[in-house]
Amino acid sequence: MLYQRSSELFAEAEKVIPGGVNSPVRAFKGVGGTPIFVKSAKGAYLYDEDGNRLIDYINSWGPMILGHAHEPVITAITERAKLGTSFGMPTELETQIAALAVSMVPNIDKIRFVNSGTEACMSAVRLARGFTKRDKIIKFSGCYHGHSDSFLIQAGSGASTFGIPNSPGVTQGTAKDTLLANYNDLQSVAQLFESNKDEIAAIIVEPVAGNMGCVPPLNGFLEGLRKLCDANGALLIFDEVMTGFRLAKGGVQELFGIKADIVCFGKVIGGGLPVGAFAARNEIMNYLSPIGPVYQAGTLSGNPLAMAAGFAMLNELNQDDAIFKRLDEKTTYLENGIRDVLTKNEIAFTINKVGSMISVHFNETPVIDFQTAKGGDNETFKKFFHGLLKEGIYIAPSAYETWFITDALTYEDLDFTIKAIDTVSKQF
After folding, report:
1. Which of 139, 249, 267, 330 is catalytic?
2. Which end of the chain has fewer CB within 10 Å, C or N?
3. CATH code for the structural domain at 71-319
């Protein structure tokens, strides 16, 4: 494959955009080489500026659960744009998508829309602090909740890719209020509560982690977090930016039957446009301005184009009772195929999967937290990434990112992918 035009575009981008990209993981720093510039996408496929077709396994990092340029979503955006793109005033559409989201997700009464997953998580933490009148939060090593200062303490994803667990610019004052626990380790959480009695406002967690690769919760982990929060007067925040409306209609709360106090959304809820949201029961949400004391605002929050895309997407998912079963079946088929060829080719690996999220870790040890995720062979991953790219398959350009499966993938696409992985892994 040739990437001449992508290389030219990247060189131009570097002159006017820091690192040539508007989000760090796109820069291929974790795998080497030059990022691919996309010209268009349809269904399960990307078409780059050099005319190459790539089977897509990141799907805009999750939102394209039904495939790129999904017709009902495109139609909704197009028709809405004809009526105006932004008003800074309420629209009926905001209420319609809010009511739909509340009907799909358990344990929430009200929802507020923002412009990104980062905003959603940042606002959820502020709300939890205001509601509990406490300052400290617990997060987990390797979990990424956006680039707000509070969360850039041993974050996963891009921060891990670059080996920078803490970002300059995050103050010591902010850092001292962010307590760090180990994912899937209840004892580390219990110790933090013991050492910080009556000071912890909330735990924020990816209930299925996706920013150290896909890492599922061990049996009893989420249940244990719920009990610890209840025992210590803290709120449990589920960051379902990745998992919400992807693993089930009601996300992880529905999938595992665990009740969160505040839930954060992004990705799928926007149908591919920049949308985030956070939701909770009335008692908590009524602490938000303009009816409560906790301030949160956004000029473009509830933007009509974004709401139209999100509403169309959620409607599709809500009306298709078989969608999540199909996604799980396709992902399981891919998992079994990858497992077979990597085993046959004597490659050390671990595969983690929950629903339509899946990761291949080049590590024989079970990957259950950030430490074990870092034990993977990143040099092998680089060969894997570039080998698949050569075969016409695009996966996340970082060992610390989950793959996202779309319903637009056919079993022929999956067979092609498995065959490509067989070819590439023979060359390790």
Report:
1. 267
2. N
3. 3.40.640.10
pTM for the structure as a whole: 0.95
- CA-nearest of 198, 197, 211 to 139 is 211
Q: pLDDT tens, 70-115?
A: 999 999 999 999 999 999 999 999 999 999 999 999 999 999 999 9
Q: Strand ranges (DSSP E) for 355-422? A: 357-361, 393-394, 403-404
Which residue(s) pair with 263 in the sheet? 238, 279
Helix H or strand E encompassing 205: strand 200-205
Q: How far, in Å, CA of 107 to CA of 44, rounded?
A: 33
User: 359: which strand partners?
Assistant: 352
Catalytic residue among 177, 239, 369, 407: 239
Tokens 């695009």 correspond to 394
Closest CA to 221 of 182, 192, 262: 182
Measured between alpha carbons, how far apart are the two ends of the chain, in Å?
Answer: 20
From CA 319, how far away is CA 418, in angstroms rounded? 31
| Catalytic residue chosen out of the listed positions 144, 287, 394, 400 | 144
- What is the residue whose two structure tokens read 């790219």? 389
| 267 annotated active-site | yes
Give the pLDDT confidence score for residue 148 in this predicted structure.
81
Point out the residues of the chain with pLDDT beneath 50. 156-165
Q: Domain spans of the chain?
A: 4-69+321-425, 71-319
- Backbone dihedral region for residue 175 (phi beyond 0: left; psi -120 to 50: alpha; all else: beta): alpha
Instruction: Express each pLDDT in 192-215 by its tens digit.
Output: 999 999 999 999 999 999 999 999
- The DSSP secondary structure of 107-128, one letter per residue, reads T-SEEEEESSHHHHHHHHHHHH
109 is catalytic: no
344 is catalytic: no
